[in-house]
Amino acid sequence: MSVILPRRGFLKLSAAIGCSAAASPLLTPVSLASAPGERRLIVIILRGGMDGLDVLRPMGDRDFASHRPNLAASGRDGLRLTEFHGMHAALKDLRPLWADGDLAFVQATSTPYRDKRSHFDGQDLLEAGTIDLAPMGRRTGWLNRMLPHLPGAEERTAFALGREDMLLLTGETPVSNWSPEVDLTLSSQGLRLLELMMQSDPEMAASMAEAIALAGSDGDSVTFEMSEDAMMDEMMADAKEARKGKTHLKIADFAAEQLRGESRIASFSVGGWDTHANQQRALNGPLERLSEVILRLKDQLGARVWDQTSVLCMTEFGRTVRENGTKGTDHGTGGTMIMAGGAIRGGRIYGEWPGLAEADLYQRRDVMPTSDVRAWAAWAMHDSFGLPKSVFENQVFAGLDMGSSPNLLL
């Protein structure tokens, strides 16, 4: 049974965990929607700020190695894609997709979000598809805003419910949600903290009451008496078990099952991308999980449906061009988008490369964005569902200039 708190409530509970809580493996709801036609669209949010320079390595840029003496050296194990670009070795299992034209990348792309580099604001802007954040409670997601323009779009029957939809598919048009197992453990101190918060936060009170009821309804007791150290140990154990139990594959299996049926749109997240330290090791896990998800989707969808499918993997921002003192990277700006699927015109790199000379960097620290990630999403939806360009520029992503078609889909 899933237990999902509103992100505002979760922030209050997880402050001690640090900024990587934004990419918790426990927050993995799946949103689904029906649509007419045979095209399928899967949007995967990579929570935590994926380092696009490590995933898609510009080995042909003469400044790459000087900015990253340790990380660039690890590129010896990378996979050459073009004369200029290499792919991180942890994505080696995706190499056949590249060769078959089912894998592509967009370099130096970003949302309009700039300067503050907050995970939660960055993720909200990515999923809202807007320039600025709307007040809490008025935010809607760009996938949801597209749905009313699709004739015959319907809500897909829900399976197991958490309380929060992904913002990406949140809005006036009904969609369905499902999430894998999550158990609930609270210390007595944590319970007291919740009680204090509930006094002034009715939304949190209602959410927590439902969370406790849901957590107990599958036969597992809800634990309250536990030290704070033990609670943290339990949380880390839950996260370890989630990875060990291949939760990401359960999500891929469920999404594929629905997309083989009535559903045409699915969205979920893959976390673990906040690589402030020891990135050479820390990035392997999330890249391997993402690779497994994509290959599992291909396998479970089957050739006929895979050939009609576009997978868009998007992150809230990129990371700094220079590695830091702990052999990691910090929050940045321009990043990389990964696209997969039989409907994608793959085997190529999209977008303009800005260069890594200091004068070419954004604020002399980050990759300079040369495109708006929303435009790539808009063209993928335009080509998938045949809606007019004006719908995306005026309503789905109000004020966006999509430019000319990049011919993303076959």
UniProtKB/TrEMBL annotation:
Signal sequence, renumbered to the chain: 1-23
Pfam families assigned to the protein according to its UniProt record, in alphabetical order: DUF1501 (PF07394)
Superkingdom, natural source: Bacteria
Keyword field: Signal
Keyword Signal included in the entry's annotation: yes
NCBIfam families attached to this UniProt entry: TAT_signal_seq
Name of the protein: Twin-arginine translocation pathway signal
Organism per entry: Cognatishimia activa
